[in-house]
Specification:
Blueprint: H1 4-12, H2 21-31, E1 37-40, E2 46-50, E3 56-62, E4 67-73, E5 78-84, H3 89-92, E6 96-99, E7 104-109, E8 123-126, H4 132-138, E9 144-147, E10 152-153, E11 157-160, H5 163-177, E12 185-191, H6 199-208, E13 212-219, E14 238-243, H7 251-263, E15 268-272, H8 280-284, E16 292-300, E17 307-310, H9 311-325
Parallel strand pairs: 3-12, 3-13, 13-16, 14-15
Antiparallel strand pairs: 1-2, 2-12, 4-5, 4-9, 5-8, 6-7, 6-9, 7-8, 10-11, 11-17, 14-16, 16-17
Helix pairs in contact: 1-5, 5-9
This protein binds cobalt (II) ion (CO) and zinc ion.
């Protein structure tokens, strides 16, 4: 059964890249009774371990979310910003954003000249105040904000923000809570700063030095009208990544994931993503190299305020993580 309450909480938690404190505390609270050992490394990665004498397996889901960082505040209450993670200017226009302190703004654009394309530099955040003191006291260069979206669910799917990668965090939390009997030494990593270049995973992979690493993250789909050509769809099951811009999945790992899915009647599909990467990127090239792969959750509208995934795909991903741990 899908735990809507947990997913809503994770999705709504304010934690853009480099500001993962809140989500780290929330996940810590959720898993503390289930792990043998929990550490937070110097960069902020949350690492939960289930000890064993066997193979060292690292699972990684990133805790951070995309957002905006304020680059300039003018006294009229118009804030300029830059992206934290991959965001498209035309998808930002008209959106409501929320800051850590709960204050909000709406994204507006300057008047565009003939044929001028919309760039982030032509956008500004209107924080709905003409009170100079209020603006000065509450908004500062370096502040970050994230989408303000209401979590929504149907019988089979979810629309929310930061499904990338709070759904991956959700899957690792559920897998840890249902940790199987095994000799393997399992590390559940909730990494920081994936959206700005998988920075947390780089140090976590180095420290843990695993025998096998599996990232759990969202991927795009090819099932929308006139969308990208891609062989992944909502409801098609856990996506086993074969390649993206950061990794070509080790053939042994592809085989392991495929055989594990087959043996356990887990619904799966293969994925090739022609853009983007995941935590598996830096982990698989750390030290002498780590055979690595990715279990992906098919997700529509990636990096927008309304990402959509299918709950049964999530269940298959949880089953696959647990089966691989054994
Ligand atoms: Co992302
Ligand atoms: Zn992601």
């Amino acid at each position: 059964m899908f735990n809507s309450e947990l997913m809503k909480k994770l999705s709504d938690c304010f934690s853009p890249s480099g500001r993962e404190k809140k989500i780290c505390e929330m996940i810590m609270d959720e898993i503390k009774d289930f792990a043998d050992e929990i550490t937070i490394d110097p960069l902020g990665n949350l690492i939960a371990r289930k000890k064993g004498a066997g193979k060292k397996i690292l699972f990684s889901a990133h805790m951070d979310q995309i957002g905006l960082i304020i680059t300039h505040v003018d006294k009229k209450g118009f804030l300029r910003f830059a992206n934290v993670g991959g965001l498209n200017a035309k998808e930002l226009l008209g959106l409501r954003m929320v800051f850590l302190n709960g204050l909000e703004g709406v994204i507006c654009q300057e008047e565009l000249k003939d044929k001028e394309t919309l760039l982030t530099s032509k956008l500004f955040l209107d924080v709905a105040s003409t009170d100079e003191e209020f603006i000065r006291n509450n908004f500062h260069i370096g502040d970050m904000c994230v989408f303000k979206t209401e979590y929504y669910e149907t019988e089979d799917c979810v629309i929310c923000k930061a499904a990338d990668d709070r759904i991956g965090c959700y899957i690792l939390i559920e897998a840890l809570k249902n940790h199987p009997k095994t000799d393997n030494d399992i590390y559940y990593v909730f990494s920081v700063q994936e959206e700005v270049g998988c920075r947390g995973a780089k140090t976590a992979g180095y420290t843990i030095e695993p025998d096998l690493a599996i990232a759990v993250d969202v991927t795009a789909t090819g099932d929308t009208p006139d969308g990208i050509k891609m062989d992944v769809k909502l409801g098609g099951g856990a996506a086993i990544k074969l390649m993206d811009k950061s990794i070509i999945t080790h053939t042994d790992v592809k085989e392991l994931l495929t055989n594990t899915a087959e043996k356990n009647n887990i619904k799966y599909q293969y994925e090739i993503l022609e853009f983007g990467g995941t935590d598996a990127g830096p982990i698989h090239t750390s030290r002498e190299g780590v055979p690595s792969g990715v279990i992906s959750i098919p997700t529509r509208n990636l990096h927008t305020s309304g990402e959509i995934f299918n709950k049964s795909d999530v269940e298959e991903c949880i089953k696959l993580v647990i089966a691989v741990s054994k």
